[in-house]
Please model this.
Amino acid sequence: MVTPEAGLPDPAGGPSTSRRTRRRLRSRPAVRDLLDEALAGVAARPTRLILTTLGTVLGIAALVGTVGLGQTASGQITQRFDLAAATRVVVQPEEKGGQEGEAATQLPWDAPDRVERLNGVEAAGTVSALDVGDDLVRSVLGLDGQRNGHALQVMAGSAGLWEAVRAVLSTGRFFDAGHDQRGDKVVVLGKHAAERLGINRVDSQPAVFLGDEPYTVIGILDSVTGRAELNDAVIMPNGAAKTAYDLESPDAVEIRTQVGAAQLIAGQAPVAIQPNDPSTLAVDAPPKQGAVRKGVESDLNALFLLLGAVALLVGGLGIANVTLLSVLERISEIGLRRALGAARRHVAVQFLVESVIVGFLGGLLGTAVGVLLTVGVSWMRDWTPILDNRLAFGSPLLGAFIGLVAGTYPAWKASAIQPITALRGT
Amino acid sequence: MTATAVAIPAPVVEMIGVRRFFPGPPEVQAIREVDLTIGQGEYLSIVGPSGSGKSTLLHLLGLLDNPTGGVYRLDGVDTMSLRERRRAVLRGERIGFVFQSFHLLDHRTVLENVALSMVYVGVPRRERLARARVALERVGLAHRTDFAPTTLSGGERQRVAIARALVAEPSLLLADEPTGNLDSANAEAILEVFDELHREGMTLAVITHDAHVSSRAQRQVRIVDGTLQW
Model:
């Protein structure tokens, strides 16, 4: 039955050269070409691309937004902690009750000056509680002395104390180094002390009496941080306290440090104050950062991450669904590509790359939306937006990975389609 | 096969006792004992009614399907022993397909559609586009390169498909009812393109149920119930 036709038109020359070029072309399709084909496949249906990425966009946006807002919110909490406590260091003599009631050591009067020389200290001042015996505090030289007196805490401080405890005045002024040196009989009233004494203005230079001694009220505090007892106290300069109540040495040094310097200053301050025997001083410093912050953050983030993960799962299923649909719809294209010499894996790679591109685009868009969300909410609440760089840069990659996982089954499905079924009909 | 004349080049297609059975039940013997040789530069038509097995024969010729038994050599290469990946390479390099329904990608330009057939044989992009332009000129569509296939007439689309089949310089052009979706004027234009290709030395196998289309070929083969008659 074999019928080699004699007298065939001998194709002169042509085929033999073309066969030589063919051998040269034996190489596989370039990776670049497969990428181009996948990109063209994605770009061919822009509306569908947008709808497909929507799930991933929402998922990644939810993830980035919730984690970002979580970090931002807990950042605000810790910032508040920071301001209140993390910059406060207090130095006082070690309590040695056993040694026949004797104090282990005495703080020098120039302790604040010594401490302020340290790098990282913003302000320092002494504070002491005065033993005033039976002296009561009265606002007016009493017609009925005994009954108008108040058993208020009387304290003494250096001029630097105010800055060290972030004192804010409601009226008047603080006493300064001049008052201190001259031993002026002036006082600043704590907020609650002023209320109890019925003094709310200082422009008429009101006086209070400690025992029988008059002191001029020059200022009233609105708030202090750290040493709350100042709010209930009548505070005079050290100079006045030395003469009136024989104050021998300060009780404690209040130090305000720069943010982050507290640990360092806590180590250096005792040496600066008492170089010959720093161990006789006790230092009260904030706990190391981390413990508190981590607790808050991990609680918040666990919840947020769970939400984001659910959203991403839905996004991934969306990609898988649409890609599968698109495989069925493009059956004839698959058949054509196989007829043009595409191997099964070329078809698989094309669909896989397409869904990775979709996932990556979704991740990119979602990250942008999430970052905008974080910044927007922070702006409205007057927060400092905090976002982990790894999150911002990793999220598009996460999107691509989701695309990869979601595209695996459809890609396998596409590669399993027989070219003859794909080319039949239509 | 006689090896008397050295001048006669090896046949492009050589099928000996090729069978294709589809496992049942009931088992369908779509192709039974087909012997077919197509020499270089030959213009062959395969005619037959629907259900005669001509589509199956086309799939076998085009390496889209595997015979159940027999020997099929394409360009002297024994295709029976090839693995799928190698068959895909051979298909891409040696065979150009023209389908009844054109199978153009609607979202790509005419030029890109033609160039597509060189992607999987590894022709660099620049060369692909240049060769695609030449192929489009050859079928008289040089002015349509940047059009979308959807804007072309049926005849023009089929000519794009022919350009796509030609551009990779195949050994065999396989056409499956190439005029099936065309009116008579457009069909005539396509047949003229085939005539010209034949004159230029291309090997063509056209599968059709249309006697007029079949009559244009240099040699006609009938397929009935899975066997060839002539």
Summary: Chain A touches chain B through 51 residues (CB under 8 Å).
